[in-house]
Structure prediction request, 148 residues.
Amino acid sequence: MAHSPMLTQRSRYALRAMLFLAEAPAGGPPVPMARIAVEVNVPRKFLELILAELRAADLIVSTRGKMGGYRLARPRHLISLGDVVRLIEGPLALVPCVSRTAYRPCGDCHDEATCAIRHAMMRVRDETARILDGTSLADAAIRELAAA
Prediction:
């Protein structure tokens, strides 16, 4: 899998959808897809694919029927931004030699142990993981409200 240094549009849509679902009252009715699409400004066809991926990963659950829709699979403080980003993007590492989930040596590297790039990218990966995994949907929703 190619590593991407920037968050893709898919990830931003997935995060926005999850944050919107995190604002729904716990135990309330499921949120219809049409409402999610409008509220987070995502084309519906694209949102369907993203929601299917989130559902397959057990981050959300869906209910069929007239009153159907989506809700978080667990409380919002138990789902991190890292859960969502890893699902959509894959590994957080910018280079494959520092990935925890998709390690691969770089083809042109002479010595991984002394590679300055690898050491710097390991710090980037660790800090990125620390922040994304340490920020739950609940934390992010609180920050969003504080910024408004």
User: Anything to note?
Assistant: The helical segments are 9-23, 33-40, 44-56, 81-89, 116-133, 137-147. The longest strand covers residues 60-63. The radius of gyration is 18 Å.
